[in-house]
Amino acid sequence: MTEKIKFIHSSDFHLDEPIRGLQQLPEQLMETLAEAPYLAAESVFDKAITEKVDFVLLSGGLCNLEQLSARAVAFLIKQFNRLEQKDILVYWCGAKEDAADQWPGAVKLPDNVYQFHARSVEHLDFRKDGKWLARIIGAGCDSKPVAGDLLGCVDDDVFNVVLAHADSEVTAFDSDAINYWALGGRSVSLTEEYDNSVIVYPGPPQTREFHSGAPGGFKLVQLHQSRKTNVRTIRADRVHWCSKVAEFQDHSSLDDAKNQFGELALQLAAEHSEQAILCRWQFVVNGPEAVNPEYGIEWRALLLDWLRVEFSGAGNGLWSVSLEEKTKGDLPNQLYEEETLLGEYLRAVGRYQSDDELRLNLQNYLKDDVPRWETDGLAIVNEHQRVEILSKAAMLGMSCLGGQAVPPV
Question: pTM to 2 decimals?
Fold first, then answer.
């Protein structure tokens, strides 16, 4: 192979899924959050045109065709037409919600778009200037392929790509025969490189909720003559999630805390001037006491309100989602032993902290009129979530009950 190939790999637009995890939102950011999935997805096609790529790989999750959205369909058609005008091909292997058989029959896709069937493994050959350069192997979302299905499509004379969504249950394996695994279905990006093969989940162009601050984006890929791939991440998100921690000394005043958080907020706004920012704030208090009752719910509420008022208009908007104290470790044992309301509360929490068999059922704390389909997920709490929930429950008790004695019987 003497020619170079350049392409874009993207997935999981989820065009009509809103930004999640926000209990309160300023009016000035509502339009930004509503438009973010579309603007981030549009940047995929913008980059394809400016980079003059040979083709675009879309590994599913673009929109939910089972709940047909006219706006999402119109958006995709417009973007595909833009690429057709530049002679850029599109290979699309959908997830269950955007599989080929879900596409509305009344809407014709442009001739540059190839959709792989949902129930089979098939391949298409890419040619440039009459030369056969690559084979795109599509594993449909209902195909459940095994290694033989994929290797049977491989041709050693060209660059081989597997295009699939996680719904297909395709299993990437260490084989030099497949040069690029273009996969979709993960909420964050993942790239694993081997000698002559690379496995890539690009993640969504726009993340919908907090994932350790992982940015949204897509991949710009260049194939060199040796079949080595150069994979670059192109950031696309219009809304940036992040978490920041401030440290200050015990008995610091509210004004001291405002100064420290204010500096961090201004720094964030400068670093992400082209994005709206959703930040989860944490603070650590350095001092002799492991727990600081004076930095309780009221103190945090005042500081959070100040952050929201002061910085929601900075840059494209910086919204403070929450403010919590970050503990340096477990609460002191003596607090669990106190004959106080706090001690009784912490002993109750401690039973759950020490016995993983005790199930957390958060549904009991919701109103009866909340639909079950909205609350079923609360019954599933993984190990990390359990530790975090119980730690926050202990700190909440410290904030509310610290220093209160048990009333006489």
Answer: 0.78
